[in-house]
Here is the input.
Amino acid sequence: MKKSLSIILLIIFSFVFLNISSGAETKIEIWSWRSQDAEVWARVEKELNKKGIPVKIDFRPFVPTEYDAKLMLALQGGTGPDIFYSRRFPGGRTQALIDAGFIEPLDGKVKFTYFTSTILKSIRSGGKTYGVPFAVQVVGIFYNKDLFDKFGLKEPQTWDELVNICEVLKKNNVTPFFIPGKEAWTLAMQHAMCGVSILGPEWIRDLTNGKVNFLDPKFIDLNRRLNDLKKYYQDGFLANTTTDQDAAFAFGQTAMVFYGIWGFQIWRQLNPKVNVGYFMVPPLTKDRKPYAYVYMDGAFALTTSSKNKEMALKVLEFTATPDFGTIFSNITFNIPAVLGAKIPEEPLLKEVLEVYRKNASPYVYWVGSVFVTQKPSLYDDILSPGMQAMYAGKITPEDLAKMAQDGISQWYKPLMKKK
Here is the structure.
C-alpha cells in the first residue's frame, strides 16, 4: 500500500514539476486597429519564448473606424484585452479611458530609457505614464516613380507645380490622385498635411494662441485649393476606401496618394516591384520651407481588467527595447518610437526618417493638437464630415471655415469671441 502511494505521489510530483519547468503558456490578448502588425506579434512571441517567457500572443485587429467603439464597449463590460493600442493623448479618446479607470499606469513597472522626453509627453497624463509608444508617423504625398519618370516629372517645389504635374498626368490619361473619400479620416489628414506647408507652422501657432481664427482668408484659401484639386481625383472618389487606394497605387493605376509611411508595407506586399517616392506637400512659393505632419501614432496600454498582468508586463517591457523597435520597423517599414532600433536598408524609409528629423512641423491642428482634445473635435466632428461635404458640393470652402470656427470656439477659449 505504501509502495503504491509512493508511486502515485511520484507521478503527481513529476506531472507538476514537468508542467512548471516546461512553462505552460499564458495567453495575452492584444487589440489593435493595425492589421498589418500581425507578423510583428508573431515574431515577438517567438523572441519571448526564446528568452524563457512562455507567452502565447492572441493579436486581434479591428476595422479602424469601428475599433474605438468596440474597445470602449468591451472595457465597460469587463471583457476587454490585456493590452490594447491606445490613441495619442492627453485629451481625446484615450483620456476618456484613463478617466474611466480602464488603463493601468506603467510607472515603476516598465523602463522608458529608450524614449525621448517629447515622445513620453504624448503618453503622460496627470503625471503618470499610460503606455509604451510604438511608432512615429510621417504623412505626405507618395508617388509612383516610374510614372513620374515616364512623363519627365520632378518633385514639385510649389503648389502650382503640383497642379501642373496633375495637368500633365491627366492629359496622358493617368489618374493624378487616388482619394479614399469614403473614409472621412483620410480627408481630415489630407487637409492637415497640406496645412503645415500651405498655412505654415507660424500661422498654426497664431491660431493656437488666438491671434487668428478659422475665418482667416488663408484658411479659406486652403479649403478652396483642396476643393479645386478634386478634378484630379479618380471618378467616384467619395465611394472608395483605403483598400481600393492601396491596390490602385500598388499597381500603378494612380500616380499619387495623400497618405502615411505605414502604407508602404501594404503596397510592397501587394506589388514587390512598386517604385515609391515621397515628397512633402509643397508650399505656395519656393522661398518658403516645406513641412511634414509628424505625430506619435499611439501606445501599447495595459488594461486594469487584465487577468494576466504579470505576463502582460513582460510583453510591455520587451516593447520598450531597441530589439522590439528593430522587429517593428523591419516588418512594418514604420519609424519606431523607441531609440536604438535598426531600421531596414530601404531608401524611402531613410528619406522619411530624415524628413521627420529636419522638417517636422512644430505646430499642427490634427492628431496631437489641442483642437482634438474636446468635443466638437476638429478631427472627428468638423474636418472629417466637412471635407466630405465640401467635396460633394454640399458646402463651400467658406462654409467649412465657418464650421471649424463655430465648433472649436464653443470650448477653446482663445477662439471665443470677446464680449
